[in-house]
Amino acid sequence: MIKPYERLANAIVLYAVSNYRRALRYLKINPQSQATQIEKESLEHFFRSDWYHILTNVDSELLIKKLNEESEQTSKKVTK
User: Fold this and answer.
1) What are the percentages of helix, strand and coil residues in the chain, rounded to 5?
2) Distance between CA atoms of 20 and 14, rounded to whole angstroms?
3) Quick one: pLDDT at residue 60?
4) Model confidence, pTM
5) Domain count, the chain
């Protein structure tokens, strides 16, 4: 059974993933957005932080890579 603190840790990571996806989508539409670029960089900093590695064992570099690939695939589908 998953413990409450594990649920909280998972929720924090999933929230960051959701925000990162949103930032990537918005940057496709508006690549000049300084605020969104800062948000994206801030989330990447979180993914690489000790705090992230306390919350999860998911490889942060792989996660960032996969989210960026997912964003590329989504944008290719939209343009077709």
Assistant:
1) 80, 0, 20
2) 10
3) 98
4) 0.90
5) 1
